[in-house]
Structures
1.
Amino acid sequence: MHDAFDDGTAYRAELSARVDHPVLSDDPILQHDLRLPGSWWDDLTKARRCRQLLPTVSPYDSSTWTGRSPSSSASQPRP
């Protein structure tokens, strides 16, 4: 876990893999269009499809949780 603070804003990140090529942005807020190649979007689509096939126990991924209106979920305890 890596914590950083800048101008009163706290950032937290967890390093899961070292990137040994240049990063896309040196700012936590994107300041310009990244102009990602089509292959990047294709890989993202494949990853999302694979993720959809995995079973989950998270209530945030279930249609019953995400389908609630804000007024009905406000009175519900957080899972």
2.
Amino acid sequence: MKRRNEYLTILILYSIFIFALSATPGKDIPSDVTHYSFLFHFVLYFGYAISAYLFFKNYYHTLIFVALYAATDEFHQYFVPSRHCDPMDWTVDFLAALVALAIIFLVKKRLLNEKR
């Protein structure tokens, strides 16, 4: 139970971090950073999916949670000055979650096979 609370805390802090990044007005984001927007989205949501999986311990619930959070994150950006809601960003976020979960699945499968 203690470990689950720790994972929940990590997930909440990660969510706040993403929200804070998304709340940054577009004019405050350096132009050289925007060139790597998809890479930043991928890395950020790859880690987010791992932290969500550690809490949920379920691939389906994790994927749904991350997809919904990414959608609300994009919607939130619609209201931030000089930012916009970009469906392509959500797509990258979703793909990052899929890749993270696929890697978790493969690592767990390999570890189980090694124990046999």
3.
Amino acid sequence: MLWVLRRYEEVSGQMIIREKAFFYLHEEIPLVVGIKLRKLIECHVYYRMKNKVHYEDILRKIAKRIICWQNRTGGEREKH
């Protein structure tokens, strides 16, 4: 699997950011396989689809940026 990921990076010219990467495994895959995979590729491994808990960090960042933009413009769009 690591070979495939490295090959993808070479061919695409894009780096895989392992801290942000994740894999979904079928729920019948043994837990020990998920643990080994997590250690091997150093990324998150989930046994079901992501739910909103997995997106909370990015949602907080987006909300913070929106508030910052609103504060700069006074909360209203300028009319021309």
4.
Amino acid sequence: MSPAERPVIELGRPGDEGLPDNEAVIAALSAPTPGPMAQRLLLLHFTGRRTGRAFTIPVGAHSLDDNLVLATSGTWRHNFAGGADAEITWLGERRAARLELVTEPVRVANSYLRLIRLYGPAAQRRLDLTINSDGPPTTADLRDAVERYGLSLIDVRLLTPGPSAPAEAAAPERTRA
């Protein structure tokens, strides 16, 4: 596919082959003092709705309007349609949470656009996307990616007190998605 034929947003980034595997990330984030990685990642612990199997996966933690959200295209997201209880390990603490898959495509696209603007050049790495344009993508580009790849947003409501949202993600922007 020529560069002109490629969509503006694609999943994944070239060069990801050198990143640590999930087991190494899970081990690091499970430590009592997980280090700087824990500012951007958390562990999500949940039981699959259909299989009943227990899962632990590393997921990017993001803050929009001082609310914790997860941005993903992983098929595991469907476990949170309509809301479900789970636990997260974040900043060295395991806590109960209620997660709900956001089903409004416009809100998802607008939220991704806000995160891309917020993170600047680091957005592709933080959101596991390739942006094939010289400038930022448009809302239409992100709506296309929501439909094409299943880009999704999951709202996280913590059920027990603990750490606040990552400071670098919360300060710069205060508009609603």
